[in-house]
Design a protein that fits this description.
The protein has 2 helices and 4 strands; from the N terminus they run αβαβββ. The chain has a 4-stranded antiparallel sheet with strand order 1-2-3-4.
Length: about 70
């Protein structure tokens, strides 16, 4: 109950509602113009997800398909 009250008051967020993985600008800037699609690479820090409740950004690891701690 206390955690729900704190979350309603925006003191803490559990980050349960995250977006789909996005590629950072550095990864998309190196895209070859002749390719129609960008292959997914497991570059560290190259992809991220965003909490849709509080806006915090987290790194995403494509090889493990998980949010990096």
């Amino acid at each position: 109950m206390f955690e729900k009250v704190m979350q309603l008051l925006s003191f803490s967020c559990r980050h349960n509602n995250v977006s789909q993985p996005f590629a950072s600008a550095a990864v998309t800037a190196t895209k070859n113009a002749k390719q129609d699609w960008e292959p997914v690479t497991a570059s560290p820090g190259g992809h991220y997800v965003v909490c849709l409740d509080c806006g915090k950004q987290f790194g995403y690891d494509w090889s493990k398909m998980r949010i990096m701690k």
